[in-house]
Amino acid sequence: MSVDQLARIVFLNNFNWGIASYNQFERLSKA
Prior knowledge:
This protein is mostly helical and 31 residues long. Helix content is 90%, strand content 0%. It has one domain.
């Protein structure tokens, strides 16, 4: 696996985690 592929995977994982935590935060603030 090249560094470019690894960087892309890490970026996508962080991006997905950021969306998930944002959605969770929004749900908590509405409750």
